[in-house]
Amino acid sequence: MGAVNTSGAPGAPDTVSASGAAGTVSRVNGPLVEVDGLAGAAMFELVELGPHRLSGEVVSLRGAHATVQAYEYTGGLAPGHRAERRGAPLSALLGPHLLGGVFDGLLRPLDGAGLWLDPAAPRPSPTDRAWEFAPLAEQGAVIGRGTALGAVRSGASPPYLVLSPGGEVSAIRRAGPCRAADPVAVVGGAEVTVERRRPVRRPLPYAARLDEMTPLTTGQRVIDLLLPVSLGGTVAVPGGFGTGKTVLLQQIAKWCDADVVVYVGCGERGNEMADVVAELAGMPDPRTGGRLADRTVVIANTSNMPMMARESSVYTGVTVAEHFRDMGYDAVVIADSTSRWAEARRELGSRSGALPAEEGYPADLASALAAFYERAGRVTTLGGRTGSVTIVGAVSPPGGDLTEPVTTLTQRFVRSQWTLDRDLAYARHYPAVSWSGSFARDADALAGVTPEGAARRARVTALLAEADRLTALAELVGAGTLPPHERVALLGGRLVREGLLQQSALSPTDAHCGPARTAALADALLAVVERAQALARQGVPVASIEDRDFSPLLRAKDAPEEEIPARRDAVLRELEAAR
Amino acid sequence: MTVWAPVEYTGVAELRGPLVLVRGVRGVGWDEYATIELESGERRHGLVLETDRDLAVVQVFEGTAGLRAEGTRVTFAGGPLRVPVGAGWLGRVCDGRGRPLDGGPPVLGAADAAVNGFPLNPTRREPPSEPVLTGISAVDALTTLVRGQKLAVFSSGGLPHLELAAQIAAQADTGGTAFAVVFAAIGLTHADAASVRDTLEERLAAGESALLLNLADDPVIERVLTPRLALTVAEYLAFELERHVLVVLADMTSYCEALREVSSARGEIPARRAYPGYLYSDLASLYERCGRVTGLAGSVTVLPVLTMPAGDITHPVPDLTGYITEGQILLSRDVPVYPHVDPLSSLSRMMRAGAGPGRTRPEHLDLAAQILAALARARQAAELAELVGESALGAVDRRYLAMAEAFTNVLLAQRRDEARSLDETFERAWRVVSVLPRRELSMLSPAALDAGYRERT
Ligand SMILES: Nc1ncnc2c1ncn2[C@@H]1O[C@H](COP(=O)(O)OP(=O)(O)OP(=O)(O)O)[C@@H](O)[C@H]1O
Ligand SMILES: [Mg+2]
Predict the structure, then answer these.
(1) How many CA atoms lie within 13 Å of B227's alpha carbon, on the beta-carbon side?
(2) Which residues pair with B211 in a beta bridge?
(3) Which stretches are transmembrane (chain B) (predicted)?
(4) Mean of the per-residue pLDDT values of chain A
(5) Using CB atoms and an 8 Å cut-off, which of residues 530-559 of chain A contact chain B?
(6) Predicted ipTM?
(7) How far lies B405's CA from each of B319, B338, B413, in Å?
């Protein structure tokens, strides 16, 4: 990186041409900066502002007058200061250094940056490290765009593939160490390096979208059983404060069976980021034997970091995921919270005086949300591999009000919604996913993949719905007045909620639950509820059924999977004693 | 450092609410510190909120009352507002801008620092893991405050949240390690401020505390500054002088109202309830200054105190605060005794990391979970009793009601000058759970029960 590029903005060319056209700052209002004399600038072009060369991006143009959103604190920036065009859009530096690293919203490394993030201080460059390169293509071969030229390995991370721009391989590096910025091949006359820059606001290209569905296993029973998500799917997770969005998303980051996880902390807490980084570094990846951190890219743009980098962080996050998708991996983007991203857009809109739509949000919020979630999908890559990007985004509705614009707009563009319910969270029923207020539009298609799973889901859903209906009724008339089979249904609802849906993220044994165990637990509970119904039909007094000790089954989730059938049988015997 | 004398501008074009609009300026930067001199020679201070060609919009901390367009001179400092930092703040009582109220000399610092601070690099943060003991049983036992955490106190008008905050500020400690309290009073009445000052008297005399007082009749816009000043002082004490620092910010609702006033004077597009759309980010820029840093001994713990207008938890101030803080202590009128903490609506999200073996007591987390579960069950039983009468309840349910009563009287209720040791809090907590039959205490291990459970005699 050139010494002049102290702001280290990715996407900036590595050298600054002295002829970089420059304008003059005319107005500064927080992150909103207006610049005169930028004739010829392009939308989304990067601009460097003032003596500290703060990076910003052109977000609107009127003649030679540009509105720029600044990615740093603009204190001290004044009308009259120079604003220099960089000739390139905001882009991210993609390379093998991403896995296991922690970055800001512009994908600049935070490891090794200063204790306090002073915009005037230089940032470390990520490109110094040496990697082990192994060629996968032969000199003289003609290979298509997106085909692997070589691989770079680091620890237990999934192999990082260097993809070809397409053409004849006129030179290729031998196996051995190389730096990310070194050329490893010449293809179609152009040098190819391990790392590369890609604009973040434009989706990376692929060959075709795939329709068939494959489930993403999350390890959370309520999701995998009732609200499944497919690879390439999109999920919104709305919930008021403290309902468990972050805990649920972190569980998925740790336990889902994706190859690469991009965790975007977008305008949330610093302590949470420290926590998730420490945890991932300390946890083994059951699939690779490495650390979970090795498959994870963390983008940390906490709420006290510059607001506009929060706006860009969701785009850099999804670009990173697409990049790994193109290597044939299943990548998951977790964004906590998309509401903070929407608020950053609102903030800029309001400072630039744009006419607001609902609740002050800019009128393009809907199209921006749609375009963001549209970047998810399972595809055939240009190189012919299969890869996917799944997006899971938290939504933080003000006052927990699910009719606010970000929640309602997001709802239109996602395939699934896991709604977190304040009453459940209050009752310490975690994860507080509402079974009645959520949806999973891919569930039926996924049912084709696992028919017995679909049947199980239907039974559990019906049981919960019946119990909910009866609970409402019992509140009016008293449970005692309900007929026996309805009282057993109420009991069944309680058993399923406590023994199956509740899953503590803090439990060393139950934080994660594999599909087989989830199925075994569900089947055991359904068998017990069914037997209880049979006994009630045979005239066994319902009070004596209710009084049985169900605890072996309720605690089965903390027991080894092999023990579940024995526990089920113990409870079935216990039920017989009600006769 | 500017070596030439700063330029004075006299072109006051407009005065609007707390804002002065100055024309004809050159090279004035955003967020620059400004001094406004009146004809009388009085000086006021402000910050640049916007700079547009030759126009600078300045927010005046002391307000614009008495300002005239003619004769007012404005100079710009060429940089952001910096304040002195250092141990010199300890033992001092100052106003909301840091000017002495205790008759002492102006506070001088070992260094100075920008009041806005810089964001702490998240990779340099150390996850919080040790408690701050408050000497309040309800807090220490059930919603443990953790070093580096931000934990809000949500209250309603008429409840003694200020007394509680002052009591915590007076009693809190970190078990022998260097500790300090910075108390920022924001928009308090004279009576409230006097009582806070009284409660903190001893700590001030011991040089363990600093008190910043912005009173209800002080300039409203000064409130925007007071918490920033407190946090800047605290950061230096924590990360340069390696102390554990507790920052109390009370009342944040007054702070938010000041922010709203500035926003409305600027004609900004409002979000919910006319609060500015950036309220979340603004509050986060304060609360997020809590934390611990890898390799340094100190910590900043933040306790924002706020009143929920009309008791409404969905009001933007408590709502956005709740979205930023790591839990809340909710005070409720339904709890009849001081400190009025509603245990079932309160939660410290960091407690798991800061309490338990090696930190407080080995059985702490289980005991707290057991008490909360029992209180939840007691609440259900009480609701049932309302319908069918207490005598119709089963024996076990009645024991739960008795347990809830013991909880209120033995553990929760506390005098306003009573500092309870952790030993005493646990002794009381065990007395409370021991009201229940031992077999009901399924969340506690047999070993913990053997050691702590008291059979009824
Ligand atoms: N699955 C879970 N298991 C155990 N505890 C949980 C679980 N989910 C949530 N909690 C509890 O709820 C608290 C709040 O959860 P979390 O931080 O995820 O909320 P949130 O919805 O992200 O809130 P905010 O919007 O304020 O960020 C946690 O600190 C934890 O105590
Ligand atoms: Mg969260």
Answers:
(1) 29
(2) B93, B183
(3) none
(4) 91
(5) none
(6) 0.92
(7) 31, 14, 11
pLDDT for position A476: 74
For chain A, the structural domain boundaries read 22-91, 96-111+125-196, 208-416, 452-576
Residues 345-364 of A with CB under 8 A from B: 346-347, 350, 356, 359-360
3-state secondary structure of A122: coil
Do the Cβ atoms of A116 and B53 come within 8 Å?
no
In chain A, residues 71-110 whose CB comes closer than 8 Å to chain B = 73-80, 102, 110
Closest residue in A to B57 (Cα–Cα): A29
Cα(A285) to centroid(ligand 1), Å:
23
pTM > 0.90:
yes
CA distance B174 to B194: 26
Task: Return the ligand 1 atom nearest residue B347 CA.
Answer: 31
* Contact between chains at A303 and B284 (C-beta distance less than 8 A): yes
Residues of B in Cβ contact (< 8 Å) with A309: none
Q: How far apart are CA B46 and CA B58, in angstroms?
A: 6
- The angle formed by the CA atoms of residues A575, B438 and B330, to the nearest 5 degrees, is 100
Strands (E) located in A224-316: 229-230, 234-238, 260-266, 296-301
Q: For residue A178, give the amino acid letter.
A: C
- Give the CATH number of domain B83-354; options: 3.40.605.10, 3.40.50.12240, 3.40.50.150, 3.90.950.10: 3.40.50.12240
Residue with tokens 């060429």: B78
User: Phi-psi category of A146—alpha, beta or left, where left has phi over 0 and alpha has psi -120 to 50?
Assistant: left
Binding site membership of A220 for ligand 1 (Cβ less than 6 Å): no
Peptide bond into A312 cis (omega under 30): no
CATH code of domain A96-111+125-196:
2.40.50.100
Count of CB atoms situated within 10 Å of the CB of B68: 11
Q: Do the bridges between strand B327-330 and strand B152-155 make them parallel or antiparallel, or are there none, so unpaired?
A: parallel
Length of chain A: 579
Is residue B43 predicted with pLDDT exceeding 50?
Answer: yes
